[in-house]
# Entry
Amino acid sequence: MVSPTLLVETSVLVDLLRGYPPARDWMDSLAPGEAAISVITAAELVAGCRNRREQRIVERELTSYQMIWDSDATSQLAWTWYRHFHLSHGMGFLDCLIGAAAYQHGLVLGTLNDRHFEPLPGLTVKHPY
# Structure
């Protein structure tokens, strides 16, 4: 099994769950086990569900990825970034948590929202499609 090298952010998975072909093609191009997700992304996706059927679909998709859980170090880095960038760049705390998880685990962040994560030093971001 391949170790994850990529943390897939919420925006990509929303496209995937909506059946957007470029999202499916890009995800299909990844090796099994290459992509992981943050617990924050999982929570954002579940929060967007309107009923149990949608939640089952989301939860089924989430089983395809290793879940990255936030550690004390991840939370502390996210808090530092948030305090530093929320006023100057409009950074949201959940984006800081997702970015910090990728950074702490040495993963590239796959996102459609590149500019949300640009201010975060040392984070490698990839726009997938």
Summary: The beta strands are 6-8, 35-38, 66-68, 108-110, 125-126. The chain has one domain: 6-126.
